[in-house]
Amino acid sequence: MSVELNRKGLEMKEFIKFDPLYEVIKNTTLEDQLLSEEYLDNLEAKRWYSTPEVAEWFGINDGQLRYYIKPFHEYLFTEETPSSSTAYRLNIESILKLRMILLLKDEYRVKGLQKLVGLREGYVQKKEDKTSTADIDIRIDLENQVEALSNMMQQILKTGLFEMKQGEDGPEITLHDKYLSDQVKQITGENEAVSEMQKIVEDFAKDKEEMQIQLNKARKEDIVIRMKERRIERQVTSELTAEALEKWAGENKHGIFAKLFQGDQIEVEKEKSIQAYIQTNLDERLYNAMAKYHEFEVEDI
Q1: What is the pTM for the complete model shown?
Q2: How far is CA 43 from CA 25, 37, 52, 86, in A?
Q3: Distances in Å between the alpha carbon of 175 and those of 156, 159, 180, 182, 186?
Q4: Is there a contact between 212 and 194 (Cβ–Cβ < 8 Å)?
Q5: What pLDDT is recorded for position 200?
Q6: To the nearest whole percent, how much of the chain has pLDDT over 70?
Q7: Is the pLDDT of residue 177 over 90?
Q8: What is the chain written as a DSSP string?
Q9: Tens digits of per-residue pLDDT, 60-84?
Q10: What's the pLDDT score for residue 49?
Q11: pLDDT tens digits, residue range 202-225?
């Protein structure tokens, strides 16, 4: 090779040293390009990579990459590869093999590369005229369109509305009369069920509306009751305060000098006496007042 391989390049070489395509590019500038590309530094031996990741490293799009995977599926993958017909996963060995295919695609035809890797028998002939990227894109687009049409046709047939029969000029798609008749009957039955369901929903809506009216009415009545109860509580408290003041005045006679020099202390004692009187009598008086308001019998406390 024209340049000394770096350590990563030597590691990559171990994966393909017996590969038939590597025998073609060995000791050429293509070998330098293959084993010295930057993406190799990021590859891990036990990882699997998606086609969009690999396509980006190769400087092409995912569709172009898949175009070259399809004819070399047996060469690129083993039974242990976690891939399907639509989702490919590639390890280091598969990536290197695919890169060699792309490096040699302008020198050999696809069929020639298939012969080199043992997928076809016969003499390997180098390609005389190169296929342009535009030609590849056209073929990829046509393949994608055919695949999309095929998938669409499969979906149409799965509905059961159509069936495929052999006609004079080949396969023909015709309307499935029995299926259509069954669907009409089913729809008719479903419409009756829907009508019944709609009636149930409407009845439920009416019941719900009536319940909401009753609930709102009950809430209004509850608010009125609570307002009256608070008013009764304030009235009872006011009455007890007046009684406490009267009691205090009767029990405590202070002369003018006492009021003059001990006024603050007297007010504090008066306030304590009033609060004590209210606390002692509030529960019983409030209970009696509420009982009278709600009109139920009051038992002795």
Answers
A1: 0.42
A2: 21, 11, 15, 23
A3: 11, 11, 8, 13, 18
A4: no
A5: 73
A6: 67
A7: no
A8: --SPPPHHHHHHHHHHTT-HHHHHHTTSHHHHHHHT-GGGGG--TT--EEHHHHHHHHTS-HHHHHHHHGGGHHHH--TTS---SS--EE-HHHHHHHHHHHHHTTTB-HHHHHHHTTSS-S---B-SSPPPHHHHHHHHHHHHHHHHHHHHHHHHHHTSSEEEEEETTEEEEEE-HHHHHHHHHHHHHHHHHHHHHHHHHHHHHHHHHHHHHHHHHHHHHHHHHHHHHHHHHHHHHHHHHHHHHHHHHHH----HHHHHHSHHHHHHHHHHHHHHHHHHHHHHHHHHHHHHHHT-PPPP-
A9: 999 999 999 999 999 998 888 876 6
A10: 92
A11: 776 777 777 778 777 767 777 878
Is the C-alpha dihedral spanning 261, 263, 268, 270 positive or negative?
positive
Q: Tokens at residue 142, please? A: 């046509």
**Distance (Å, rounded) from C-alpha 140 to C-alpha 144?**
6
Type of residue at 128: E
Q: For 272-299, how does the pLDDT look when each residue is reduced to its tens digit (9 = 90+)?
A: 888 998 889 888 888 888 888 877 544 4
The label of the residue with tokens 């995977």 reads 69
